[in-house]
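Could someone model adenosine monophosphate with this protein?
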Amino acid sequence: MTVEEAAAAGEDQEIISWFEGVAENAGLVQTQTLRRIIELNHRTEYLQKWLGRDLQVQDLDPAALESLFISSVPLACHADHEPYIQRIADGDISPLLTQEPISTLSLSSGTTDGRPKYVPFTRFSSQSTLQIFRLGAAYRSRVFPIRAGGRILEFIYSSKQFQTKGGLTAGTATTHYFASEEFKTKQKRTKCFTCSPYEVIAGGDYKQSTYCHLLLGLAFSDQVEFVTSTFAYSIVQAFAAFEELWEELCDDLRGGTLSLRVTSPGMRRAVMDCLSPNPSLASNVEMKCRELEGSDWGSLIPKLWPNAKYIYSIMTGSMQPYLKKLRHYAGYLALVCADYGSTESWIGVNLEPHDTPERVTFTVIPTFSYFEFIPLYTRNKKDNSNLVVTDDFLEGDPLPLSRVKVGQQYEIVLTTFTGLYRYRLGDVVEVAGFYKGAPKLTFICRRKLILTVNIDKSTERDLQIVVEKGSRLLSQTRAEVVDFTSHADLAAHPGRYVIYWEVKGEAADGVLDACCREMDASFADHGYVVSRKTGSIGPLELRIVETGTFGKILEYYIGNGAAMSQFKTPRCTTNEVLLRILDRCTVKRFRSTAYG
Ligand code: AMP
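Reply:
Sure, complex below.
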């Protein structure tokens, strides 16, 4: 073991011991976390509205304070916090949500519900990001040891930061983090270094950044210990681009040059500083690429990065549809799931890196926020006397972390250090077990209904399952679904679901027609089944869009401030611009006729 490795092992042990301590006493730590949040912020306008002006925090013990908080502060959603956040964005520096003025706002991806939302970002946000990265890395290195001093091929991207009317810095949370001191600390102190310099990450044009990430990844290929991105989508995008760009990349490797497609002067300078001519590496990569081209790029990553130990990224939830392609590129390499969090707060860490994306759980970190869990039951639950009936689920009363039950599904509610109070995140999770006293969560889906025509209610997860079933029929061909989205077409009579697929490779019309019928038959929601049988929902339509359509959708979102690092393809849309892109790019239509 080198000196660096010994030091890193010491740090790993230190953070693991810390976490084991807080996990052991998770319930108590939560009560203390809430007390700390209230102590810091009880004089804010939001909390005084609910807790009164005379609260003396020191007079109450933590448990009494917890009861007071739960009984006085109502459950809320983003819309309840929005007027306060808007005033902050407009320059109001009075204590509205937090005692300390907020100087930075994050844009949550918004691609999940179509509208970017501002969320406060504070020093705590980047500190907790660094902390969860260190913790996750410590558990990972127990299972997949990596060489100190190696490199990471990291497909990460900042988006543009801008100023709000009141002069606050706004941008995505990942962008703020990449610009923070904590990120610099991580870059200096982790065992391995990112192949790309900061100028590539912050270059602002994701295509140019991807080219440079790939080129530098190849230049340092022998040293790369693992390949990573925030969401798996970025890795799949990068290697899809690689299939098109490899010859140009080899030319640059050979000559120590940089393609003119990279126009940003800062990025050019920083990349050129890392490159020198390497004809033998270029020939080697070229030879491997010719072979890979013949095998449809299967096992691309281990073949070109022979020392890589694993791929690390968020692969669960809305990233699941990219898993098949990721596995294809990854070959025998392990896929390790990255942690669970949101712009609002980090939530859980993956303590078992060997778990597959299908089995992975995230253990709640009880110091990051105060977490509550709203039990959710399907609408056919018999005893629903004490439950609130909502559109999609029956809801019980919110429970603290210490009272959740294994096997039960919940919606997560957050009270954060950044000024969100009893904030419904909209994610549905299931408790899979406990690590000491901390619940281990499986991510189930975003709660929001995405497709509904009348009494039917289909979620993102329902759609994902249906597309998965439909696209299985493509396995008899050489075609695959690259990406998909959907729309509830209410202008049609009767209304119907429209699913858009971008397909790579050739598939006969007969097969696509069968895919369309399979999807229509696979929606399991009772409302959908009944409505289809009675004809109050029309036949599902599958529309095939031309190659590059989802690239245009990505560009549209990036143009509106989204970041490549946090991008999630919207799985259902009512957005006029998107629908115009999709309709203009539709090349084939199939309708499922017979039903039931
Ligand atoms: P954002 O809106 O960009 O802050 O994205 C946060 C959302 O991404 C979360 O609320 C989840 O729905 C999803 N997400 C984040 N991490 C994971 C994960 N590890 N697995 C599944 N979904 C995740």
